[in-house]
Specification:
This protein is of the alpha+beta class. The protein has one domain: outer membrane lipoprotein receptor (LolB), chain A (Clam), CATH 2.50.20.10. Helices cover 16% and strands 44% of the residues. The protein contains 3 helices and 13 strands. A 13-stranded antiparallel beta sheet has the order 6-5-4-3-2-1-13-12-11-10-9-8-7. It starts with a helix and ends in a 17-residue tail after the last strand.
Length: 268
């Protein structure tokens, strides 16, 4: 009986290993663009809400913490995401809110509400490279990369943070995309199993390494869908860092489309 159980266990383990090898083999046959398309969809769930601590860390290690709440919803086309990020504290940013609406076939919309001015301001495409509320993330960094705005090349495969990854180099397809993003290229480590971004390097317009983002605490929230609960962005030219830690994650709760409008982010 014991021998039979051992044989069953060995058989199950062998099956799982074989399935993993098969999945990896299928993934290995993908083009760089196909990998980035899968990466694009890896976090696209119907909706999700979360609270977060955004910690700003200067080159001396001094910290400032900002508390936010975020709501993200997938548009009816199943491609574009709509997102509201509202700052809860400290007092100097409390009430500030950002609304982003992606458009896969056009320019993304970004609005910011500044309570001191009591008005909503629409950001233009060139603002995408600006700092996101004083952090090391840009407005463009919090919006999904448009896959076909870039040329993608598989440069190597590498294991990072216990994940087997494809390493993809993405370069802007034209000067407009390059100028709006503020990057000459981006290198992304994409996990083979989930197609989630594990690490990313951003290079400035002169081709020098500017920032590195490290992604961890990745949680599966639906079939083939994942959300990272920890993101650290380090500016290698200034020594400044921004750490996002997400908490109280809720997924697929039926968030209404109606709240994703400029007039709505003025409401506290």
């Amino acid at each position: 009986m014991k021998k039979r159980n051992v044989k069953i266990i060995i058989g199950v383990v062998s099956l799982l290993i074989g399935l993993t090898d098969f999945q990896n083999s299928m993934a290995d046959n993908l083009s760089a663009r196909e990998i980035m398309v899968k990466n694009f969809y890896a976090s696209k769930v119907a909706d999700w809400t979360t609270e977060s601590n955004m910690t700003l860390i200067n080159d001396k290690g001094q910290e400032r913490v900002r508390r936010t709440v975020g709501i993200t919803k997938l548009a009816e086309n199943g491609i574009d995401s709509m997102r509201i990020i509202r700052f809860l504290s400290p007092p100097d940013v409390k009430g500030t809110a950002i609304l982003t609406i992606e458009h896969f076939d056009g320019d993304d919309d970004v609005w910011i509400y500044l309570p001191a001015l009591k008005k909503v301001r629409r950001l233009v495409a060139n603002n995408k490279k600006d700092s996101f509320v004083g952090s090391d993330f840009s407005y463009g960094d919090i919006i999904s990369l448009k896959v076909d705005d870039y040329h993608h090349k598989l440069v190597k495969e590498e294991r990072v943070s216990d994940y087997d990854c494809f390493v993809i180099e993405s370069t802007p397809k034209d000067e407009r995309v390059k100028g709006e993003s503020g990057y000459s290229k981006k290198i992304t480590w994409v996990a083979k199993e989930s197609f989630v971004e594990i690490k990313a390097e951003y290079f400035d317009l002169d081709g020098r390494l500017l920032k590195v983002q490290e992604i961890s605490e990745i949680k599966q929230v639906d079939k083939d869908r994942w959300i990272a609960l920890r993101r650290l962005m380090t500016n290698y030219q200034t020594g400044h860092k921004t750490l996002f830690i997400f908490q109280n994650l809720q997924v697929n709760k039926g968030v209404s489309h109606d709240i994703f409008a400029p007039r709505e982010i003025e409401r506290q």
